[in-house]
Amino acid sequence: MSQQSSAKRPGGNQPSGSVRPDMIEEIARRVVARVVERADPMTVPVGVSVRHVHLSRADLRTLFGLDEFTLYRPVVQPGEFAATEMVAVRGPKGGFERVRCMGPCRPQSQVELSRTDAFALGVDAP
After folding, report:
1. Please, are residues 15 and 73 in contact by the beta-carbon 8 Å criterion?
2. What does the pLDDT read at residue 34?
3. Residue 71 burial by CB count (10 A; 0-12/13-18/19+): exposed, middle or buried?
4. Are 63 and 87 in contact (CB under 8 A)?
5. What is the model's pTM?
6. Which of 2, 17, 32, 95 lies at a CB distance of 3.0 to 4.6 Å from 90, suitable for a disulfide?
7. Residue 96 pairs with which residues in a beta bridge?
């Protein structure tokens, strides 16, 4: 038996090439923490986002039966992430399918969209 095959695998008894979701989450947490540590306090992360939805915990529970979002991937803003959950957004003139939810939960649900999205939906958004 080779020394490599008898060595304990870092992922426990997982076959090589298999990555547990908790490992991915821990790696992402460490990377974000390191980036935040090294960040210049005078810089502000800026990102461009397409239409998305923020849900309150109560609305998340009603729509998906969940207490927490499912992580899809981290985003530029520290502590925020894109969730796997998606919703349809409808207005008087039209709608959008598969609009990404963003986490974590907010005190109140809100939809964020562009001015052209508001026109397409037929709403007079602020």
Report:
1. no
2. 78
3. middle
4. yes
5. 0.63
6. 95
7. 89
**Run of H or E residues at 61:** helix 57-64
pLDDT in tens, 81-126: 999 999 999 999 999 999 999 999 999 999 999 999 999 999 998 8
Give me the count of residues in the chain. Answer: 126
- Residue-wise pLDDT for 9-56, tens only, equals 444 555 556 677 778 888 888 887 777 777 777 777 676 678 999 999
Instruction: Identify which of 58, 65, 112 has the alpha carbon closest to the alpha carbon of residue 85.
Output: 65
As a dihedral over the C-alpha atoms of residue 102, residue 85, residue 88, residue 50, rounded to 10 degrees, the angle is 40
**Residue partners of 18: CB distance under 8 A and separation at least 6:** 11
Describe the strand order of the beta sheet including 110-112 as a list of residue ranges.
71-74, 81-90, 95-106, 52-56, 110-112
Query: Which residues on adjacent β-strands are paired with residue 100?
Result: 86
**Alpha carbons 26 and 96: distance in angstroms, whole number:** 33
